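Ticket closed. Logging final result for Multidrug-efflux transporter.
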Amino acid sequence: MRISFNKSVTESLLAKIRSGEVMSRNEKFNLIIQLSIPSILAQVTTVLMFYIDAGMVGSLGAEPSAAIGLVEPATWLFFSLVAAVTMGFSVQVAHFIGANDFAKARAVMRHGYVFGLCFSFLLLLITFLIGFQLPVWLGGGADIQHDATCYFLIFSLIIPFHLIEYMSAAMLKVSGDMRRPSFMSILMCVLDVIFNYFFIFPTRTISVLGMEMTMPGLGAGVTGAALGSLLSFICVALPLAYYAIFRSPILAWKLDVERFVWRWQYVWNAMKIGAPMALQYLLMNGAQLVSTMIVAPLGNISIASHSFAITAESLCYMPGYGISEAATTLVGQSVGADRRDLYRSFAWMTISLGMVVMAFMGVIMYIFAPEMIGLLSPVTDIQILGTSVLRIEAFAEPFFAAAIVAYSVCVGAGDTLKPSLINLGSMWLIRLTLAYALASQYGLRGVWFAMAVELSLRGMMFIFYLFRRLKKT
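Final structure:
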């Protein structure tokens, strides 16, 4: 089977969905790969950004690493709420594009930016109200509370820019343009590394090709890592929004011939799609915070190992998220075009591909776990503990992929309530209960064993749910 990585080929295959033409299995697979590869590369490079961040901070010692690891789940919580709002609008855009109604797609997009920015500033206000007490609530020691607070508050300033970046990228992706958002994501990672290099470390003398030279630096440590991330988001969010709003061949607002009219129905539809996702993200990330609270009493070594292992594991499951973005786009356009046959076919093909890819990544993670953790921290105790928990998690990767991609299939179809309940029930009733029971006796290894069991069961539940749903369509 020949895969042609060509923009015009992608557009012609997406047009077949909207026009009702029959697609061969090879054409479907070709389209899945074409949409997945750029997204996978973007997801992996995004994780590399956090990976390099963690490695730079990790070189400063266990305490700075623990400071970031303590509040990191809270930053994910607010970022995930931004994602929920964005998906509420982008799914509608995918459906309208699938139905060849580009004018309504652009109208929904406008509503998304306005409503999303208002929501992001509300989140920003909340972060500043809780930021000074958050490290204390999470059980962090006095030695890391100050750094944790500084990191969280500065990182929170990213929220409005993340909304602009994520909304612009999501709109372009559901229109079939995966390449540009992916390229900008890679650029953001490169910029983040450059900014962090100068912000984290102090002015120092380095050797380049045998020559000594002075490298300027802010020496801000944990605070510098947050500043670097903030600037990288700003540098990417604004150009991406410009392209989506002014240059996109489908979404550019200049293509509208009628005056823009605010319609609350689009916001209501977005809330119906996004609210279950927001509640899920709120409770899922809340569960991550509870998990952090379970880990925190185990000490700074366990906190840092937990954070580094999560960052390292992300390199393995990001391909699943890349494929899931392709699934959302393809299923969304298929549903909008009323192509139930394609909906079912794309669902199972993307899930199968995700499981195969992440099973391979699980093998890689098991073999190279020592090297993955070793790049993040020079502390021997962290390396040993981080390696052991990564190898526990490696066995859960295939079913984790099933959960990731199946959930995105449901999102593309506009079905978010029941899948969100599956995620919540699995996390709160299985993972946290088992983690709490095992942590006292087995420490961090017990917490990660609970995680592996829960992810495997969640993947099985999603496969069963989707099987029953697709059988009825």
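The radius of gyration is 22 Å. No further action required.
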